[in-house]
Amino acid sequence: MSTVNLDEILEFAVEIAHQAGKAITEGSETRFKNAAGFDEKKNTADLVTETDQNTEKLVYEAIQKRYPDHQFIGEESWAAGKQAKLTDAPTWIIDPIDGTTNFVKGFPFVCISIGFVYKSEPVIGVIFAPFLGYLYAAKKGGGAYMTSPLHPERRSLPLVQPPPLPSFKQALIAFEWGSDRSKEVMAQKTRTFERLTGDPASGVEGGEMALGVRSIGSAALNFAHVASGSLDVYWEIGCWAWDVCAGMVIAKEAGCAVVGSKAHAQNAVSSSWPPVVSPEVLTGRKYLVVRAIGDKEGKVDADAQKRIIQTFYQAVDEWDPK
Ligand code: LIP
């Protein structure tokens, strides 16, 4: 297997994220000027635009030119039938626009998500939200950082010393409506949402009454916000490896706990901590991430992360995404 220079790859990923960001903002201007349309993928809640496809092409060609022997898995080439398997080879996993609905509407939580997997483990992650100017980046073992127009200098993630999180009542959580709106899945989602947010004192059985909920429409940016510490938890079933690969590296480097399904989480909390991101978790389409939690002295509190994961999963009705 070819050896890789992760510092060089990170630098290159940041460079292409900026180029892709320019293509996304220019694409948006053209779209709004020309009142351009979009295509539906599996249903009316799953969209693709010309800008998704052009941005993926730009990123793919740049990677091909620089690293011709690397593998590539991209959302739009996958949708077009080029469904490469994840192997041990150095592999780029890209979502050219995560938050396509936001992109179409002009809601600014839109990003390019660039993940790089080596020996089956996500090791580089770069997320760039061009309308916000937020860049998140990480290399395995090298920590995670963020830059923004307000703070152009690199700031380590999490942005502040991790505070405690004694219970769900202090938690700002993110989950998404996703694109599967079938009756069965909606019933499980809404039951889960009710338990996570409902007031048990008013009769919501199992209600955890989380402090608040956000649905920003981008899995990658949800991961990034948990990494920075501005969200406490993010959970979603149904997104794909390209939505989460970069975010997983950034989150893990920021001290978050990243787990997959309920069964995986159950196993993880009784194994060595923090859990590694295996290929099964990366491609498993069930994701839960909890921010770095500190104890009263500010020391990392692994037990608190485990408690939050267990409480969260008690409230979840899990299903297998189609
Ligand atoms: C989106 C995800 C989001 C999910 C949407 C969609 P896209 O990705 O990031 O979390 O809820 O259904 O999959 O399609 O904008 O790249």
TrEMBL record:
What chemistry does it catalyse, as a reaction equation?
a myo-inositol phosphate + H2O = myo-inositol + phosphate
Associated pathway: Polyol metabolism; myo-inositol biosynthesis; myo-inositol from D-glucose 6-phosphate: step 2/2
Q: Give the Enzyme Commission number.
A: 3.1.3.25
What InterPro entries does the record point to?
IMPase, Inositol_monoP_metal-BS, Inositol_monophosphatase-like
| UniProt-listed Pfam families | Inositol_P (PF00459)
- The superkingdom of the source organism is Eukaryota
Q: Keywords assigned by UniProt?
A: Hydrolase, Magnesium, Metal-binding
CDD domains xref list: IMPase
Q: Which cofactor does it need?
A: Mg(2+)
Which annotated residues bind Mg(2+)? E75, D95, I97, D98, D243
Has keyword Metal-binding? yes
Q: Which GO terms describe its biological process?
A: inositol metabolic process; signal transduction
Which positions are tagged coiled coil? none
Under the heading PANTHER family, the entry gives:
INOSITOL MONOPHOSPHATASE, INOSITOL-1-MONOPHOSPHATASE-RELATED
Q: What is this protein called?
A: Inositol-1-monophosphatase
